[in-house]
Amino acid sequence: MTESNNAELTCDAFLDGHVKAWQPRVGYRAATDPVFLAASIPARAGQSVLELGCGVGVASLCLNARVPGLALTGVEVQADYAALAQRNAAENKAPLSVTHADLRALPPSMRNQRFDHVMANPPYYAAHGPAAQDAGRDRALREDTPLADWLDIGLRRVRDGGYLTFIHLTERLPDLLAGLQDRASATVLPLAARAHRPAQRVIVQARKGARSPFKLLPPMIIHQGEHHPGDSDHFTQTVRAIMRDLGALDLTAMARG
C-alpha cells in the first residue's frame, strides 16, 4: 500500500498491543465488540474457525493471539476491507485466509467445508435506517443481508457439535433465538456498560445439534462506577483481563456457575 493510502488509515493496537490492525481513518472502525467476540470462542489449537463479515480481521486476529495453532478463515464483502484483513494477517503473522465474497455466494470450496467454530459481528442497523456518510461504514453497519440468513449460513458451515457465536444488539435477541430454534442450543451473555443499566448487546453462543436447555447468564459489566473518571477506560476486572491479558470469556463455565 502506498504512503498516500496509508495516510487514510490508522494502525490501532488491540489486546494491549498483541494485535495491531490497519483500518480506515474514516469509515467502519473495530472497537470492543470484535475483542469480546474473539474472547468468547471456545477454540482449541488444531481447530478451524470461520468469521463471517470479518471486516479488517480484528476478531480473528484477537482469537489467534489467544489461541495459537488455529486454521482461520474470513469472509468479507467489501474488497478494501478484505484487503486490509489480509494485510493485517500478514503483519501479525496470523494464519488467516481472507476471501472477498458475499456470504450468500460463498465459493464452492467453502460451501463444501465444515468448521469447528463460526463467529460473526453482523451489521447492527436496519436496512431502512438513516445512511452513514461514509459508504464503507454504512455497508458495514446496515443490515443488507437479513439476520436470519447470517444464522442459516453460519449453521450450515459449522460442523455438528460445533459452535456458532454472534455478538449483536440486545433488541435483536428474539430474532437470533428464532433462527436457532430446533437447530442448536443457546447460551446468552448480556453486556452492560455499567452496573444497574440495561444490557445493550448480547453474545449468543449456540452448539449445533445440541438439545441442552436455554441459558441466560448474568450480565457482564464493562466499566466500573457510574461514569468515566477522566480519560481512563476504567474497565472492570473481568473486562480488563480480556482487553489486556488475553483472557477468555468461557460461557460454558459461566453457565455451570
SSE inventory with pairings:
Elements: H1 3-6, E1 9-14, E2 19-24, H2 33-39, E3 48-52, H3 58-66, E4 71-76, H4 79-91, E5 96-100, H5 108-111, E6 115-120, H6 135-141, H7 147-157, E7 158-169, H8 173-180, E8 184-192, E9 201-208, E10 215-216, E11 220-221, H9 237-245, H10 251-256
Parallel strand pairs: 3-4, 3-6, 4-5, 6-7, 8-10, 8-11
Antiparallel strand pairs: 1-2, 7-9, 8-9
Helix pairs in contact: 2-3, 7-8
Question: How is this structure best described in words?
Answer:
The structure is a single chain. With 257 residues, the chain is an alpha/beta fold. It is built from 10 helices and 11 strands. The strands form 2 sheets. Strands 3, 4, 5, 6, 7, 8, 9, 10 and 11 form a 9-stranded mixed β-sheet that branches. It has a two-stranded antiparallel sheet with strand order 1-2. α2 (33-39) packs parallel to α3 (58-66). The longest helix is centred in the N-terminal third of the chain and has 13 residues, at 79-91. 39% of the residues are buried. The model is unreliable at 136-140 (pLDDT under 50).
